[in-house]
Amino acid sequence: MKIKALIITVVLALASFVPAVIAQTNQTDKIETKEQHDARMAWWRDAKFGLFIHWGVYSVPGGYYHDKPVPDIGEWIMNRGKIPMAEYQQFAKEFNPVKFDADAWVKTAKDAGMKYIVITSKHHDGFAMFDTKASPWNIVQTTPYGKDPLKDLAAACHKYGIRLGFYYSQAQDWNNGGAAAGGKWDSAQQHDMDDYIDKIAVSQVKELLSNYGEFPAVLWWDTPSDMNTNRAQKLYNEVMALKPNIIMNNRLGGGFKGDTETPEQQIPANGFPGRDWETCMTLNNTWGYKRDDNNWKSTTIIIRNLCDIASKGGNYLLNVGPTSEGLIPQPSIERLAEVGAWMKVNGEAIYGTTATPFGSELGEAVKSKDGYGHDTTVSSGNDWRCTTKPGKIYVMIFNWPASGKLELPGLQSKAKKTYLLVDRKKLKFEQAESGVTLNLPAEAPDKIASVICVEIADATAKVAAQK
Known about the structure:
With 467 residues, this protein is α/β, with parallel strands linked by helices. The protein has helices at 2-25, 34-47, 77-80, 85-88, 102-111, 139-142, 149-160, 193-210, 229-242, 299-311, 330-346, and strands spanning 49-53, 64-65, 68-69, 116-122, 163-168, 218-221, 247-248, 260-261, 276-282, 315-320, 365-369, 375-379, 384-389, 392-397, 405-409, 415-420, 426-427, 429-432, 435-439, 450-456.
């Protein structure tokens, strides 16, 4: 009897212990209904266009180490150049962004038609661009600037009605004992990963979630090197405790799917059906400032990328890399202003829209290279793109048809009227069983992307399957 009682006691004890362990280690994503998820994601889905900002102490060397260029992207210079910790940390003494103007940055984004901003609060070099108690390696304690720029950005975003999100490198940290892609190169970097997670990452995530009022609206994780479920769970628990309605991407690690897919330097041929997604892309070749990178994308490419991404149901997060003085490079400002001029006329074809009801305009998926030279697939059809809203179809034409006609194949919904967004002049059209044919002016009103609105009788476009 004593043995049986002992067994029962042990079993009951284990039964009470196991669920607690499971709750702590095996939870992988927020549990919510579809309606709750849709409500949480609504503003982000409507926004479509955001500004990514990679800014940190790496802007001081600007891609050069000992007067020699270091290959690869600017914010990776410590890793790619194998710069010792003690030497790299000296750059902080030269980081004095006295020309930083949060109001001007946010207004630049707003005028470009962007609805949200995501800025690097800490990149892989571990340098915190905010006031943190977890590590002295931060802009307030180690630079002549001595202030928290995220506070100013939060205030400016609130003023202009722009959502603010924080990028945070949770795993890689080359100065505070975190992971390092490709292995560590300085004995001073050797440190216990769990100790780093507990004392640096968890503490800093708490600060970021607590000290900026209504923000961040987005938490953008990156490169989950050496992350496991337990390490990721600690960070996830802090987020759920402090800002449960925040939007997170898919890069936390440890089995967490997050809310959004994050294709980088590429636009998937068919998007991510069934998942929210966001293409992040540079304006030149680098994310962080690199003084010799002048390979700027044209405004044509940027606007057509935005149209392409929106037509596939995604968001476009377009990057700028400010200088160590706190200035966004002039070529970036010029291009953003030009995109903004297009958006003022045609923004209704982007904001709050959903993916094309057609699909044939995308063509076949073909092999290509992404912005890093890696293999990927892209859409082969590049003449026009399409988005929808209840009762409306938006056709964004890149290559104006010489025939003066453009067919919307298989459109069964009754078309009520069609017009160009630029002047609202009505266009003639013909409707048949095979679809709707638009009769176009002789010349394109916009050489980059001319937008036509087709108002239809149905809330959701009815399109016959194409063979």
